[in-house]
Design a protein that fits this description.
- By secondary structure, the chain is α/β, with parallel strands linked by helices.
- It has seven helices and four strands.
- It has a four-stranded parallel sheet with strand order 2-1-3-4.
- β1, α2 and β2 form a beta-alpha-beta unit.
- α1 packs across α3, α1 runs antiparallel to α4 and α4 runs parallel beside α5.
- It is globular and about 50 Å long.
C-alpha cells in the first residue's frame, strides 16, 4: 500500500476496533443470552465467548502489504467468535476460500495475506438466520444495534474502498460480497444492502464497477456457481468470468 492508503486503512481499523469494543462493553451479556436462545433448536451447545467480533487479522496488515481484495462475508460464526481466534472466515468456509485462491495462482492473491476480510455485521450468531431471532426477541436497543451495525459496516467499508482505489493504479482492491441470500427482500441484511449502495451513489470515481457479488464460500457454493457460469461461457478466462458473474449477481441484488 502507499503511505496514504495505509494511513486510511489504519484509521478504518482503529474506528472498527473501537466500535466493536464499545458494543461488547454495552451489549455483550444481553446479546449472548439471545444467541443462546436462538441456537437451542438447531445448533449444539458451544463455548460462547465473544458477542461482537473484531477481526484481529486486520492487525497483521502492514504498509508493505499488497491488498488485492476486500471480501465481505455475513457475520461471525462459532469459530470466529472464539477468544483464541477472533478472526473472520477461519472455519470450513474460510478454508474453501483459501483453497480457491491457492488453486488459481493466476489471481495473484493469497487469501490470508492479500485480502481484507470484513462482514456485514460484527454481531455473532451460530447461523446467520439467528440474527433475525436476536433482532425480533431483543428490546429496542438490540433492534437498533442490528440495524446500526450493518449501516456502520457498509458505510465504513465503502469509505475504505473509495480511499484505497483513489491511490490505486490497477483498479484494486476489488470488493467482493460473498453470500447474497440475506441481501434479498425480507433478508436480514437489507439495511447493509441499501447503505452500501447509497455509499457509491455519486459514481464520481467509478468505484461501484469494482464491486462484485457472489455466492458464499460455504458448502462450496461459490465454486459451483462459478463453474456452472464458466461452462456456459467457455470463451471467458477466469478473471473475465469472475467479473461477469459478479456483475450479474450485483444487478440481481442491487438493480441495474
Amino acid at each position: 500500500m502507499t503511505k496514504h492508503q495505509f494511513e486510511t486503512f489504519c484509521d478504518f481499523r482503529t474506528q472498527f476496533k473501537s466500535y466493536c469494543h464499545t458494543l461488547n462493553k454495552n451489549f455483550s451479556e444481553v446479546l449472548q443470552g439471545l444467541v443462546r436462545e436462538a441456537q437451542k433448536n438447531d445448533t449444539p451447545s458451544y463455548p460462547l465467548e465473544t458477542a461482537v467480533v473484531y477481526n484481529t487479522a486486520l492487525d497483521d496488515i502492514k504498509e508493505e502489504s499488497n491488498i488485492n481484495l476486500i471480501v465481505i462475508g455475513d457475520n461471525p460464526g462459532k469459530n470466529e467468535q472464539l477468544a483464541k481466534s477472533n478472526k473472520y472466515l477461519v472455519g470450513q468456509s474460510g478454508k474453501i476460500a483459501a483453497g480457491f485462491f491457492s488453486k488459481h495462482a493466476d489471481l495473484r492473491t493469497d487469501f490470508r495475506k492479500n485480502v481484507i476480510i470484513l462482514n456485514k455485521t460484527p454481531v455473532h450468531t451460530a447461523k446467520t438466520k439467528h440474527l433475525s431471532f436476536v433482532e425480533k426477541n431483543g428490546d429496542g436497543s438490540i433492534k437498533s444495534l442490528i440495524t446500526d451495525s450493518q449501516i456502520f459496516m457498509a458505510k465504513k467499508t465503502a469509505e475504505l474502498h473509495h480511499a484505497l482505489l483513489a491511490d490505486a493504479a490497477d483498479g484494486r482492491p476489488e470488493l467482493w460480497l460473498v453470500g447474497y441470500g440475506e441481501l434479498k427482500n425480507r433478508g436480514v441484511f437489507l439495511r447493509y444492502r441499501d447503505a452500501l449502495k447509497s455509499s457509491y451513489a455519486d459514481g464520481t470515481d467509478n468505484a461501484w464497477e469494482r464491486v462484485f457479488v457472489f455466492q458464499h464460500f460455504s458448502m462450496n457454493r461459490f465454486s459451483i456457481d462459478l463453474n456452472e457460469f464458466c461452462t456456459a461461457h467457455e470463451t471467458l478466462g477466469l478473471v473475465d468470468a469472475l467479473h461477469a458473474l459478479g456483475k450479474q449477481h450485483r444487478a440481481e441484488i442491487f438493480g441495474a
